[in-house]
Amino acid sequence: MVSLLDLATITEQGVEFISPHDGTPMLLTPEHSISLQHSIGSDIIMQLDDVIATTSPDEARMREAMYRSIRWLDRCIEEHLKLDPLAVTKKGGLDLEMRRECCEEMVKRDTPGIAIGGLSGGEAKEQYCQVVNTCTDLLPEGKPRYVMGVGYPEDLVVSVALGADMFDCVWGTRTARFGNAVTSAGVLNLRSASYAEDFTPIDLNCQCLVCRTLDSPPPPLLNGSICEPSYVGGVVGSDTYTGRGLGITKAYIHHLVAKETVGAHLLTMHNVTYLLSLMAKAREAIVEDRYPEFVKNFFYGWHQGDKSKYPIWAVDALKVVGIDLLDN
């Protein structure tokens, strides 16, 4: 809905969109949204909510959106008889008291998970962290906390420290289309002429298909429940493994990005793998009770060891949960 708000009218019945092609009106109700998600076999089903820009100064409209989203949640739950796996969206903009009130109402519904929505809309990072920290403190243990629209690596690492579990974002794929590679040392703009003769992998620490060499052995799986390794004839062995690396270099990506869409495809494969790997490592660090160390190592690598570049909002937010980024 966020990207289509200019073409939408929101009423108690639902959201009426106007087709950008022929002006035909289309009504999306809370019930129909649940039906559509069921029809495509969604693993995580989200309620329809009343969307408003987080930075809106209109408190009355923000409160209206919150209460309407709560009412729509009840309609979604009624439609979704099995209640599994419905997740709800928590509203309230940047008003912490409104967020607390919405939290209380959402928790009463006892859904399998709760999403913190209405962020990544241009608000200051300090405000974003305050909202996430406030919400996670009020949400039940043992249920996933899903922050919608967040995908920048620094945001992910800080948000996990504040108690969030799941995220979604177009940033990793969108930035790939502009020739940007996400690496353990920050974001590289491979359109720059400085990479024209750089014949090293995008990221030496990356195990994605793009960065691995042609003779690379099978890498550790990021999630074996999604896809198992593939071998010729089903015979397991290093010589029958079908997922060998492509051995792509920065120079080759630089050559492609301004001319061929395959450059964006390759960077998308790399960026998505990087983000999945980052979250897998974060989870491993939590399980092994060393997340503060993981956070410090991440920021040190992301900013190439220059602590003067650490964003103040991240330093302050992490202090709240006992992580001092500037402590040696």
Structure report:
This protein is α/β, with parallel strands linked by helices and 328 residues long. Helices cover 39% and strands 11% of the residues. It has 10 helices and 10 strands. The chain has helices at residues 30-39, 59-79, 96-108, 125-138, 153-161, 171-176, 250-257, 262-287, 291-302, 312-320; strands at 8-10, 15-18, 25-28, 45-46, 86-90, 113-116, 145-148, 166-168, 180-183, 186-189. The strands form 3 sheets. It has a 5-stranded parallel β-sheet. The longest helix is centred in the C-terminal third of the chain and has 26 residues, at 262-287. It is globular, with a radius of gyration of 22 Å.
Tag the structure with descriptive keywords.
single chain; 328 residues; alpha/beta; 5-stranded parallel beta sheet; 3-stranded antiparallel beta sheet; 10 helices; globular
Question: Care to give the gist of this entry?
Answer:
It is built from ten helices and ten strands.
Task: Tell me the β content.
Answer: 5-15%
Tell me about the largest β-sheet. 5 strands, parallel
Mean pLDDT: 86
* N-to-C series of helices and strands: EEEHEHEHEHEHEHEEHHHH
Mass-distribution shape: globular
Kindly provide the radius of gyration, computed on alpha-carbon positions and rounded to a whole number of angstroms.
22 Å
* Tally of DSSP helical segments: 10
Q: Give the structural class.
A: alpha/beta
InterPro entries: TGT-like_sf (IPR036511), tRNA_ribo_trans-like (IPR002616)
Keywords: Zinc
Domain tRNA-guanine(15) transglycosylase-like: 1-213, 248-302
Pfam families: TGT
